[in-house]
Design the sequence.
């Protein structure tokens, strides 16, 4: 009965989003904090160090943490204002239960009563329809301890195959591509290597807005003499001063990478020794890219032949290079192929595994890296182990103290979980750290699916738009109310420190999960007293395989300013690993890993990296006469993901209050739209009316809308649920739309917060 | 305590990404909490993502102080021009109108001119200003001249500005490119042919001493 309550205005009046500004003690000057806690930002994958000022169990402000090596005190506006999410009027201070007769559609109930109801509903649904009728959706903003516990909870306590996470919308294409090419899924280099490189290639990454601190690395490289190549349909702030800008047509990245490799081969800009000694599969790829002549590449990508040749020359002749990409090439129905195309030009250059020679995806979510390693992904077990591999199953079953046969097999991706809900195969859902109604594509379908659930329980600190559909919402914890580890974009494991206690009945998420397990009578394995104990079990569970955290401790993180995994403990190799410092740079010649066992630096039995043929296919939905314009989506610097937190922080909302439709004046003129006009965008799935922003910094065949908003302002009403066949990432970055000047202004009487 | 003389403020608009981190952080400063003193503007958003942060340049002979009829604006011995003194400020707006950089803000709710004081509470206690600590792109930088020379070999600090017949020297430095370049990228032009060259190297600031015509040439 997870229906949306009738009185939605009441819901937003009661539960927000309301805007918090600094008032009271947060506005007073010269207030001495009780303590200052060194921790990290709660938002993106860079995990900047920050110090939080605490007074009377409230975070009242921040102080830069200049000693933390990654960001050295630097912060983006989200980090600066994040403290305003604490002591927020929208905070869920009790468990709430659906009650149509109550204002706002929910009534507070005692925590224990809520837990009992959740446990009994799980058991009712599972005994009526089978264990797999109840699914779990988790998230990559959770600490590693929590992410690990979610995977264990689904497999051991709920015995369901259906767990997946919101990293599915984020990093999975990069992960799949990296595993195919390198055998391991992690940034190959620390960011300090960016400073020592000759060429920085950035494909599909709005670095300045989505990973602001990385800007300083890129621009310091430039000061040091590096050339910067940016590939993007928009002139983003980091593209503004680059040396070569390639304004690619969305969805055509493989063609560009193949075209570059074609020219590298033609001009013999290849590292033959590296290709021969450290890779396999080059010949097939070389054969495949023969068709990708500069002319053909230009035709497909919408970039001039001359610019393509310039890029190939800059890349080809460089002695050192660092290739960065992000969601811009990954959010595609061929996202993995895009990533493989990028890796091919890296491998052909031989510029990896050395100082100043690197490759990385820029992780999106806070724990995007760590959250995808330890078993909340549908096909994965801790340590980046494979749930279909009998040896891996046996090892983890041993750690968990269960019979391997009891462990469910591989499940399905997050979007497929919604399709199963829609088909009636899944009847119950537990979600945490995920707001699919805003963040999944074609989200009208997602909302309809949520309405079909027999029982939906959400764990969150604010009532997000998906949780509007819930039967029970359990009050979870903010980032600053718990401790644990997170792995940021470089592969550096950092430690989140607790600054304040959760208010009211709110509980640390791992306690809530354990309380549910206990109420289900499945307490065994869920009796941890603190995150450190969870980490200790994870260290054992991850030991000996690729994502080895067995040598990671809170103390080592603090001592070293972070620990790059793999960080094995003594038993892995020999005594010299007793106090392994971690591995900042992967793939160094002569390095050892548990797959190659000394045969080579890459994570395959022969130690060699793999070239993979990257096959170009057009986007799932290309433009046509009816829908002639490309829509691409992305972020703005002041908002984060589905906005559950940042749409509640007043100064961040003021900075960029509403989404706008970015379009080129050439397109605007054709449509009769002027800057600031209400403009309607329609796709085959939905429509949206927003103000136009007319700028020359975008391709004329493409419009851009940021996706952080809900309801009538949600860009994901338009996007397509096409997915990559391997990674299952949705195609957020390209679909077909038609655009016209709106006849009337949109109905904002609901404050634009219609669910 | 004073701001150590070897520590200087450098603005590099070429690096600004418009993220407003400086503005948001300025509003967290203990002396004027909730009231950011920084202006951050798009130069011409229709054609470029270029933004520029405006903090007080701390003039050697501050125009704001010179035009103040109430003598409310003081420059400390270490060269920092302070917010107007509350008992003296008559909220006449002379300083707001006269400042060639457009820095002072009239806070009508306090009947007081407020402006960037280079985080005097922090800088005089050996810390960096809040904005220059958090700025994620290095557009605002606080450090020694040696540091900036080492970190920014492509540009040079300038602290002389010409406004009509008025020449101003400032405590704060503006980083300008060693090679003069100009204007903005037009994505359509880049698509049509000029992906590199004329429109790709750009900088909105030209060195003040240079002839304007020269700096606009490419």
Sequence:
């Amino acid at each position: 009965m997870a229906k949306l309550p009738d009185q939605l205005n009441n819901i937003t009046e009661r539960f927000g989003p309301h805007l918090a500004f600094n008032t009271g003690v947060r506005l007073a000057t010269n207030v001495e904090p009780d303590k200052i806690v060194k921790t990290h930002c709660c938002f993106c994958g860079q995990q900047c160090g920050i110090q939080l000022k605490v007074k009377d169990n409230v975070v009242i402000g921040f102080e830069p943490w200049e000693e933390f090596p990654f960001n050295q005190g630097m912060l983006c506006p989200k980090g600066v204002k994040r403290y305003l999410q604490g002591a927020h009027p929208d905070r869920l201070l009790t468990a709430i239960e659906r009650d149509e007769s109550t204002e706002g559609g929910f009534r507070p109930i005692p925590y224990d009563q809520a837990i009992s109801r959740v446990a009994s509903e799980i058991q009712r649904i599972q005994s009526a329809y089978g264990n797999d009728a109840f699914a779990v959706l988790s998230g990559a903003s959770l600490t590693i301890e929590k992410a690990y516990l979610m995977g264990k909870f689904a497999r051991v306590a709920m015995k369901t195959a259906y767990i997946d996470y919101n990293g599915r919308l984020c990093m999975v294409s990069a992960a799949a591509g990296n595993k195919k090419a390198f055998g391991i899924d992690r940034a190959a280099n620390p960011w300090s290597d960016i400073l020592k490189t000759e060429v920085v290639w950035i494909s599909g990454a709005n670095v300045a807005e989505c990973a602001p601190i990385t800007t300083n690395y890129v621009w310091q490289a430039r000061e040091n003499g590096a050339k910067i190549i940016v590939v993007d349909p928009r002139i983003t702030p980091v593209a503004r001063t680059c040396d070569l800008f390639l304004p690619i047509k969305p969805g055509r990245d493989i063609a560009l990478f193949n075209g570059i490799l074609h020219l590298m081969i033609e001009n013999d800009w290849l590292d033959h020794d590296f290709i021969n000694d450290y890779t396999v599969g080059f010949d097939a790829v070389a054969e495949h890219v023969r068709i990708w002549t500069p002319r053909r590449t230009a035709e497909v990508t919408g970039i001039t032949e001359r610019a393509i040749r310039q890029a190939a020359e800059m890349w080809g002749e460089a002695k050192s290079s660092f290739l960065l990409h992000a969601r811009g090439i990954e959010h595609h129905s061929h996202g993995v192929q895009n990533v493989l195309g990028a890796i091919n030009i890296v491998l052909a250059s031989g510029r990896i595994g050395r100082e100043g020679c690197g490759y990385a995806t820029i992780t999106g979510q806070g724990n995007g890296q760590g959250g995808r390693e330890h078993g909340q992904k549908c096909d994965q077990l801790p340590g980046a182990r494979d749930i279909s591999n009998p040896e891996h199953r046996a090892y983890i079953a041993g750690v968990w103290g269960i019979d391997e046969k009891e462990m469910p097999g591989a499940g399905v991706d997050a979007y497929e979980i919604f399709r199963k809900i829609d088909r009636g195969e899944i009847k119950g859902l537990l979600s945490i750290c995920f707001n699919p109604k805003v963040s999944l594509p074609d989200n009208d379908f997602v909302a309809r699916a949520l309405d079909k659930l027999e029982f939906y329980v959400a764990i969150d600190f604010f009532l997000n738009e998906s949780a509007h559909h819930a039967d029970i919402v359990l009050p979870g914890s903010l980032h600053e109310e718990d401790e644990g580890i997170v792995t940021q974009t470089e592969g550096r494991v950092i430690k989140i420190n607790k600054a304040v206690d959760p208010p009211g009945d709110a509980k640390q998420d791992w306690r809530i999960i354990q309380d549910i397990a206990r109420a289900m009578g499945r307490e065994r394995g869920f009796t941890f007293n603190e995150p450190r104990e969870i980490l200790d079990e994870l260290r054992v569970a991850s030991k000996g395989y690729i994502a080895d955290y067995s040598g990671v401790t809170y103390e080592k993180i603090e001592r070293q300013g972070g620990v790059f995994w793999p960080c094995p403990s003594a038993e892995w190799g020999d005594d010299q690993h007793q106090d392994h410092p971690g591995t900042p740079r992967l793939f160094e010649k002569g390095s050892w890993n548990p797959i190659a066992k000394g045969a080579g630096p890459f994570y395959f039995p022969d130690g060699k990296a793999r070239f993979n043929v990257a096959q170009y296919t057009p986007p799932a939905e290309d433009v046509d006469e009816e829908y002639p314009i490309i829509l691409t989506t992305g972020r703005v610097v002041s908002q984060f993901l589905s906005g559950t937190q940042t749409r509640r922080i007043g100064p961040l909302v003021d900075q960029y209050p509403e989404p706008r439709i970015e379009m080129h004046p050439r397109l605007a003129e054709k449509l009769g739209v002027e800057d600031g006009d209400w403009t309607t965008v329609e796709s085959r799935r939905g429509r949206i009316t927003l103000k136009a922003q007319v700028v020359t910094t975008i391709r004329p065949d493409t419009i851009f809308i940021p996706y952080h908003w809900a309801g009538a302002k949600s860009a994901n009403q338009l996007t397509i649920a096409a997915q990559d066949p391997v990674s299952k990432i949705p195609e957020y970055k390209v679909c077909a739309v038609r655009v016209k000047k709106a006849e009337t202004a949109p109905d904002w009487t609901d404050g634009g917060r219609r669910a | 305590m004073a701001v150590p003389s070897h520590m200087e403020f450098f603005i590099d608009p070429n690096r600004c990404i418009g993220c407003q981190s400086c503005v948001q952080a300025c509003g967290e400063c203990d002396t004027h909490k909730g009231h950011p003193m920084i202006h951050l503007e798009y130069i011409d958003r229709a054609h470029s993502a270029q933004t520029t942060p405006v903090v007080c340049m701390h003039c050697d002979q501050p125009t704001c102080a010179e035009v103040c009829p109430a003598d409310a604006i003081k420059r400390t011995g270490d060269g920092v021009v302070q917010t107007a003194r509350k008992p003296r400020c008559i909220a006449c707006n002379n300083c707001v109108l006269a400042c060639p950089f457009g820095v002072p803000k009239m806070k009508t709710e306090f009947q007081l001119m407020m402006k960037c004081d280079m985080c005097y509470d922090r800088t005089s206690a050996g810390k960096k200003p809040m904005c220059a600590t958090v700025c994620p792109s290095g557009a605002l930088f606080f450090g020694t001249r040696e540091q900036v020379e080492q970190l920014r070999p492509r540009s040079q600090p300038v602290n002389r500005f010409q406004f009509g017949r008025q020449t101003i020297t400032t405590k704060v430095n503006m980083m300008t490119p060693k090679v003069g370049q100009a204007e903005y990228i037009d994505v359509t032009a880049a698509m049509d042919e000029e992906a590199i060259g004329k429109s790709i190297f750009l900088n909105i600031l030209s060195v003040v001493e240079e002839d304007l015509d020269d700096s606009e040439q490419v």
Notes: The beta strands of chain B are 8-11, 39-42, 51-54, 105-107, 112-114, 140-143, 155-163, 166-177. Chain B is about 20% helix and 20% strand. Chain B has one domain: 8-178. Chain B touches chain A through 51 residues (CB under 8 Å).
